[in-house]
Fold:
Amino acid sequence: MAAEAGVGDAERYIGVAERRARLASRHRLAGAARAGGPEEVAGSLVALHGTDPATVYLAVGARLADPARTVAETGRALYEDRALVRMHGMRHTVFVFPTDLTAVVHASTGLAVAARERAALLKHMATAGAPDAAWLKEVEESALAALALRGQATAAELAADEPRLREQFVYAAGKSYEGLHTVSTRLLKVLGVEGKVVRGRPLGSWTSSQFRWAVAPAHPELDPAEAQSALLRRWLTACGPATEDDLKWWTGWRVTDVRRALAAIGARPVTLDEGPGYVVDGDLGPVAGPAEPWAALLPGLDPTAMGWRQRDWYLAPELRPALFDGSGNVGPTVWWNGRVIGAWAQRPDGEVVWRLLDTQGVGRDAEAAIAAEAGRLRGWLGATRVTPRFRTPLEKELAR
Structure:
C-alpha cells in the first residue's frame, strides 16, 4: 500500500490556500509563472485535453507570457516539430502530450483500452456477419502502408487507396441504438488507441474537429507497471496533493494499479480537507503563494478545471450546475487567485464577456485583472470565433 511509503513521517496538513498556491505556479497561471511556449505549458500540465480542438490552443494561450503567437507556435509544436502529439490517453479521451510521454501513456493506459476496443470491433463485426479477424488485419496493414506513403490523410483519402475501408456493418441490430458503422471509422479509432496512428493537421482552421491521420511516431515498448509509475509521478508532481479517488479518476486505472504505482514511487501521505492525500517524495515542504494576485480565463475542458475529481477546494459546489454540462464537462471558467468565480463566453461579434457567480473577496482589482485577461484573449483570437464543443448553461446564455 502507498501509505506504507510514508511510515515514520508525520503526515502534514496541506490546506486550501497552499493547494491554490501550488496550482498558481505549477499550472503556469500566475503572471510570473507564465510560459514561453506551448511545450512548456504541456510539460507543466502533463496533458492538454484534446477532445475539443480549440481547448488545446485556448489552454496554451491562457498560460503564455506573450499569447500573440499562440496559434502559430502551437501548430508548429503539433504538426511541424512534433514536440506535442495528439493521441488517446487516460479514460479513453483524446489528449495532447509532450512527445516524450507517448510511450509512457501508451503502455500505462492505452494497451488495456486497445485490447478492449479491438475485441469489441471484432465481436460487433462477427455479430453483423461481416468479415473475420484475418480480413480486418489485412485491411489494417494495407491502410497503414497507404498512410505511410501519404504522410497524412483523411479516412476518405485512405479509402481511395484501400476500398475495403468503405465496408459497412450494422451495429446492435434490433436495438434502439442500432446504427450503420463504417470499417474505416471503427478501425482508425482502434489503431489510435493502439498507438499506431495519431491525429494530424485539421482540414480547416485550428478550431476544426475534422482531422487527418498520420502514422504514430516510433516509441519504445515499456513495461506497463513501470509506465504507470512514471505517469503517476509526473502527474502528482504537477497536480499534487491529490486523493486516491482523484488519481483513480484521472488515470482511469483500477484502484489496485493506483496503489501499486503510489508505493513504487514512494509517494508521501498528507492530510487534506477531503481526507488522506499524496504528494511525490520531496514535495512535503510548504509552498508560498504568488507575489501578485492573478486572474485567468480558462477554456472548457481545461486540464486545471478538470484535473481532480474532488474539486471543492477550487470550485464551490453551488456553481457547478451553471458551469458543467449534463455529462460532467466543464465549460469556460473565470478564475481569481486559485478558485473558479464565474464563466466567460465569446459572442458572435467577437466580444469576450463574463459573469461572476462568486463575488466573495472580489473587488475592483479582480474585475480589472479579469478585464485585462479578456482583452488578452480577444487580442490573440482576432477574427476567430470559438464555440465550445460541450456547451454549458451559463456559456450559452452569455454567448447570445
Notes: The CA atoms of residues 105 and 330 lie 24 Å apart. The radius of gyration is 22 Å. Residues 1-50+224-400 form one domain. The chain has two domains: 1-50+224-400, 100-215.
